[in-house]
From TrEMBL:
<feature type="site" description="Transition state stabilizer">
    <location>
        <position position="241"/>
    </location>
</feature>
<feature type="binding site">
    <location>
        <position position="91"/>
    </location>
    <ligand>
        <name>substrate</name>
    </ligand>
</feature>
<dbReference type="GO" id="GO:0006083">
    <property type="term" value="P:acetate metabolic process"/>
</dbReference>
<keyword id="KW-0547">Nucleotide-binding</keyword>
<feature type="site" description="Transition state stabilizer">
    <location>
        <position position="180"/>
    </location>
</feature>
<feature type="binding site">
    <location>
        <begin position="208"/>
        <end position="212"/>
    </location>
    <ligand>
        <name>ATP</name>
    </ligand>
</feature>
<dbReference type="GO" id="GO:0000287">
    <property type="term" value="F:magnesium ion binding"/>
</dbReference>
<comment type="subunit">
    <text>Homodimer.</text>
</comment>
<comment type="pathway">
    <text>Metabolic intermediate biosynthesis; acetyl-CoA biosynthesis; acetyl-CoA from acetate: step 1/2.</text>
</comment>
<feature type="binding site">
    <location>
        <begin position="282"/>
        <end position="284"/>
    </location>
    <ligand>
        <name>ATP</name>
    </ligand>
</feature>
<feature type="active site" description="Proton donor/acceptor">
    <location>
        <position position="148"/>
    </location>
</feature>
<dbReference type="Pfam" id="PF00871">
    <property type="entry name" value="Acetate_kinase"/>
</dbReference>
<dbReference type="InterPro" id="IPR000890">
    <property type="entry name" value="Aliphatic_acid_kin_short-chain"/>
</dbReference>
<comment type="similarity">
    <text>Belongs to the acetokinase family.</text>
</comment>
<dbReference type="InterPro" id="IPR004372">
    <property type="entry name" value="Ac/propionate_kinase"/>
</dbReference>
<feature type="binding site">
    <location>
        <begin position="330"/>
        <end position="334"/>
    </location>
    <ligand>
        <name>ATP</name>
    </ligand>
</feature>
<keyword id="KW-0479">Metal-binding</keyword>
Length: 399
């Protein structure tokens, strides 16, 4: 049985893909299809070893984009129909209350993922298009859906329940689901491996800080709380999303500020967070503005850190004691300042950072707390593609 897996992350206007060996993590090829359905700027960037192929031109839809990407695989000597792909793993954002384990895709499964679009209107429809196109282009290869919500299926009732009219919540599936689950699970397992202890013995706090950002509290390998909710808007301050807000702001925006629903959605998904406060959403640009003395950028940074610390405090209490704190994703892996500021002044809780270790870049998992500190603070590079590939490969091999 081949451990070669094609992993696809199909978004509304882009598709990220990777062909890799699930066993060894060796990546044979990877790429990005951008600006699908737009009249200008369509581009496919395909990397295979040290070769990079670029295709510029309009990409009318996902199917056309994938077809072209598969052609680029062929050009670099990897015909996906004959090279021995054992499974295709799809990142699917929302599994609702139906799916949490990696799931072999059938017509029924596709139908249900489509129905779950009410819970993730920006994501699930694009995931379905990616799945349908791949099933057409690679018939006969088993396809597996891996759900971003899956790891948080275990949230205790008190953590996942919103205190609104229970009948309304039940009728419309309104509860905390959580997202980035594949990453939280992957890095927490990697951290346990690094510490040489089973996950089942550890209390862990994970900060996944990318463009989207979320934190989780994990007890004995099981998630007991997370910051994202019914949608990926709740919780931490993100690149363009606000995280937690007073719910009363929504009617205020409509009745007092005069925004319509579409404008509110635009505000919450695209024009808030770091971008809303500072004008830029990329953390490196934010840092440059701060270095230049920009007061709005400084405030954005302070709000971001304040929110991280608020959840750190909450999760310390929920867990009672914590063995390790993990930072991952673009900001978490790269910004020494964010890590230092998020954990400053907490030695009373056994949480300390070694400044030299924190500033030193190195590949792989690394400890940034001093030796002997009560709480291990780790930087763990996330690898959602590998986690999806392994989940897909495990399922296909077992069935
Ligand atoms: P996503 O997968 O959610 O799109 P990533 O995990 O790639 O996001 O993270 C993107 C974020 O990481 C951006 O805000 C980017 O500025 C930030 N980032 C990347 N490299 C660095 C760095 N060297 N220092 C600070 N931030 C960085």
């Amino acid at each position: 049985m081949s451990d070669l897996v094609l992993v696809l992350n199909s978004g509304s206007s882009s598709i990220k893909y990777q062909l890799l060996h699930a066993d060894t993590a060796e990546v044979l090829a990877s790429g990005l299809v951008e600006k699908i359905g737009e009249t200008q700027g369509g581009r496919i960037t395909h990397e295979c070893g040290d070769r990079e192929l670029v295709h510029d031109g309009p990409i009318p839809d996902h199917r056309a984009g994938l077809r072209q990407a598969f052609e680029m695989f062929r050009e670099t000597g990897l015909d996906l129909t004959t090279v021995g792909v054992g499974a295709v793993g799809h990142r699917v954002v929302h599994g609702g209350e139906v799916f949490w384990e990696p799931t072999l895709i059938t017509d029924d499964v596709v139908r249900t993922i489509r129905e779950l679009s009410v819970l993730a209107p920006l994501h699930n429809p694009a995931n379905v298009i990616g799945i349908e196109s791949t099933r057409e282009l690679l018939p006969g290869i088993p396809q597996v859906a891996v759900f971003d919500t899956g790891f948080f299926h275990s949230l205790p009732e008190a953590a996942r329940t919103y205190a609104i009219d229970a009948k309304v919540a039940a009728a419309h599936g309104i509860r905390k689901y959580g997202f980035h689950g594949t990453s939280h699970q992957y890095v927490s397992e990697k951290a346990a491996e690094f510490l040489g202890r089973p996950s089942s013995e550890l209390n862990q706090i994970v900060f996944h800080l990318g463009n989207g950002a979320s934190a989780s509290a994990i007890a004995g390998g099981v998630a007991i709380d997370t910051t994202m909710g019914l949608t990926p808007l709740e919780g931490l301050v993100m690149g363009t999303r606000p995280g937690d807000l007073d719910p009363g702001i929504m009617p205020h925006l409509i009745h007092v500020a005069g925004l319509d629903l579409k404008q509110v959605e635009q505000l919450l998904n695209r024009d808030s967070g770091i971008k809303g406060l500072s004008g830029v959403n990329d953390f490196r640009e934010l840092q440059q503005l701060i270095d230049g003395g920009d007061a709005a950028a400084e405030l954005a940074y302070d709000v971001y850190i304040h929110r991280l610390r608020r959840y750190l405090g909450a999760y310390l209490v929920e867990l009672g004691a914590v063995d390790d704190i993990v930072f991952t994703a673009g900001v978490g892996e790269n910004s020494a300042a964010v890590r230092a500021d998020a954990l400053a002044g907490l030695s009373g809780f056994g949480i300390e950072i070694d400044p030299a270790r924190n500033e030193t870049r190195a590949p792989g998992v690394r400890r940034i707390s001093p030796d002997g500190a009560r709480v291990a603070v780790l930087v763990v590079p996330t690898n959602e593609e590998l986690a999806i590939a392994r989940a897909a490969n495990d399922l296909v091999t077992a069935s």
